[in-house]
Amino acid sequence: MKEPLDPEMFDPACPSSAMPIRIGDKWTAMVVVCLEEGPRRFSELRVPMRGVTPKVLTQTLRALERDGMVTRTVYPEIPPRVEYELTELGRSLFGPIAACRAWAAAHLEDLMRAREEYDEITAESPGGAQLA
Amino acid sequence: MKEPLDPEMFDPACPSSAMPIRIGDKWTAMVVVCLEEGPRRFSELRVPMRGVTPKVLTQTLRALERDGMVTRTVYPEIPPRVEYELTELGRSLFGPIAACRAWAAAHLEDLMRAREEYDEITAESPGGAQLA
DNA sequence: CTGTATCCTTGTTGATACTG
DNA sequence: CAGTATCAACAAGGATACAG
Asked: In this structure, is residue B131 part of a structural domain?
């Protein structure tokens, strides 16, 4: 517990963007997963969430705080230190997140195959609707 | 089965917009629920999904078709008739959707309460961050 | 009836730079 | 370190009108 976050834990090339089920917005689920092992600091979170700007990360964290999913604790030190931690309500998202992962494991491949097939067919015949 | 869709089945005033879990985009989950009892026609779907423009409904249905969630069947009649029906893959979304509903039943009230409280506090003291 | 075409508004995301 | 400020780019959603 509380090992450093893996910079590779969210691969931009993974097909999660195809997921029909989303937790909040683009970054919310990543934050929740990052906080699974305990409190994390602002800059710790930036490591695996590559490409996120501080503005967007702040927006995401503020939204989670507003909804009672995370707490924000400021330690009045120099340099400043801020820790984000999941509340019980935030941890209650693990259930749905696990359900999403289970769905993905069972069906994401079917989805991707259907999508490729559809794109092939519509590419060669733009009016390719099925008739009865 | 196959009773007319209730025009009130999606109340715009309900707090589902607060849900941290989403199925696809704004309209996707509604379509899936509408198709739960069997095939539906384009204009049938427009009834409960009040305010959706034909363009957006078409986009939603095309995306679902592309992902193998629904089939689109054209009956070459006059006037034209088109039916949309869930595939097995589409029906597999019922599990996650049920999980979302269960989460909402258990926790949505907590979320709404946290949100109201947060908004009250930040309204009176814009710098109201917790200290340690 | 079942869409398409066009235009527009709005919100979200991001890049960049700067502050306590 | 932990953000905020500002601006730019884009995409989603919607209004309206029209077509096969």
From this structure: no
